[in-house]
Amino acid sequence: MTAGRLVRIVTLLSAVASGSLAYLANEPLVVAAQARLDDERAELHSDAVAFAAAPRLRAERTALLRRYEPLFAQNAQAAFLRDLARIARMHHSALISTSVSEDSANTANAAGDDFRRTNLVLEVRGSYPNVLKCIAALSRGIDLVRVGLPTLRRAEDSVNATIPVTIYEPALRIAQ
Q1: What is the pLDDT of residues 121-144, one digit of tens each?
Q2: Based on the domain organization, do 2 and 15 belong to the same domain?
Q3: Residue span of the structural domain in which 110 resides
């Protein structure tokens, strides 16, 4: 091997080594920049998705207001109690009492709130499995109602459940 050839090989190896060192030294910076770029693309995409969904959400909101307008024109509490009595009968439980909770006056609507709230406290009695089925059906079976955490008490051969419930009534009315 000649000296000239050896110099070319050493020069080539040093160029490869220095390029590798430069790549390895800057790789975390490149990876971080790529991650920031990916985050920005994802944020732009999520904004585009949100803006694209806005007309559909407005139409859905209007449809829901129209759907519930006749029900709540009657009396939201009466409609809720009718559905509650049906659920209690279906699950062999007894609706013992209903009362408006004391903090109902404290749920005044904030400006721009689309719903009026009425807080109730329900008492249901029945066997343990039937009371649990009644609570589960209540939480998933009636629209625009939020069921709070119930308190269960044993009473002789049955269970009494005290259930906090919030009924939501649309505050906005659709112009006919």
Answers
A1: 999 999 999 999 998 888 786 677
A2: yes
A3: 75-170
